[in-house]
Design brief:
Layout: H1 3-20, E1 25-26, H2 38-62, E2 66-72, E3 85-91, E4 97-105, E5 111-117, H3 118-122, E6 128-134, H4 138-148, H5 176-188, H6 195-204, E7 210-213, H7 216-225, H8 236-239, E8 243-246, H9 249-258, E9 266-268
Antiparallel strand pairs: 1-4, 2-3, 2-6, 3-4, 4-5, 6-9, 7-8
Helix pairs in contact: 1-2, 4-5, 5-6
Length: 270
């Protein structure tokens, strides 16, 4: 099947999927109920196809079978952030790329892990139709691929309680990007079997979360209006000083390159 006819088939499938309704799950975007348009479907599927071609080219060049993939689901410019959500993309034995990532059930404080194709990953109400990824170093490729393709190990560090602004060094909640980094730790460090150990490894490797300046009124409004936002896992001395630390795509990208765990960020512009 040529890329053109594959894209047409996927677009038709996506249109039918949109008619029956998208799953009520999200991460790194708003939870506002908004129907997909023909234009957004076309843009999402085109981005998925271009991303697949780019990842295939990287695989052919370096043999890499795992990439850390990001999307821009909402406008975070006022926080100086470019991307909103991470997932682990891995090459299947059949050929296509799949993405293992965590999504929040809209209107709830629950999260779940999903295995999706690139089309599903980008077939969303995206703020900007742009993809970004990093290629983990060759030494990390095999352990990451083994983790991501193992049904049990891939979900071992998942916590259902979801908080979009969860504190990086606590285990009461877990947001999507936090799950991605903790899973990295458990994949590459044999002694990591718990979230506490994964966080200790991330600290040891020098990971630094993003600090958001959120005043008391902003925090109160977010907590009252959104089931998936909480602040009670943050230390009082930081919370009451309006310093909310959390795991972001941008902080993960900066750390991975600085720590020598992945190559530079690569992007597909709109």
């Amino acid at each position: 099947m040529t890329h053109f006819f594959l894209w047409r088939w996927l677009a038709g499938l996506a249109a039918a999927w949109a008619l029956v309704g998208a799953p009520a799950a999200h991460a790194g975007r708003t939870c506002e109920a908004k129907p997909l348009t023909a234009r957004s479907i076309e843009q999402g599927m085109n981005l998925a196809l271009r991303t697949s071609q780019a990842l295939d080219a990287e695989h052919a060049r370096s043999g890499a079978r795992v990439m850390l993939l990001a999307r821009a689901g909402q406008d975070l410019g006022k926080y100086q952030l470019r991307y909103s959500h991470l997932g682990w993309a891995y090459k299947t034995t059949e050929g296509p790329w799949r993405v293992l990532h965590k999504l929040n059930s809209c209107g709830s404080a629950d999260g779940a892990l999903y295995r999706q194709g690139l089309g599903e990953f980008f077939l969303d109400d995206l703020w900007r139709f742009e993809a970004a990824w990093m290629v983990p170093t060759p030494a990390l490729q095999a352990p990451l691929h083994a983790m991501l393709t193992d049904p049990a190990r891939g979900i071992a560090l998942h916590t259902r309680a979801y908080n979009m602004l969860s504190y990086p060094w606590a285990t009461r909640y877990q947001q999507s990007n936090q799950w991605a980094l903790e899973t990295l730790a458990s994949a590459v460090e044999p002694g990591v079997a718990t979230r506490e150990q994964a966080q200790a490894w991330l600290r040891f490797k020098g990971y630094q979360p993003t600090t958001l300046q959120l005043g008391a009124l902003t925090r109160l409004g977010a907590r009252v209006s959104s089931a998936h936002i909480a602040f009670d896992d943050h230390p009082n001395e930081k919370r009451f000083a309006d310093r909310i630390e959390t795991v972001t795509v941008d902080s993960a990208f900066v750390w991975l390159e600085r720590a020598g765990l992945a190559g530079p960020v690569q992007r597909l512009a709109p």
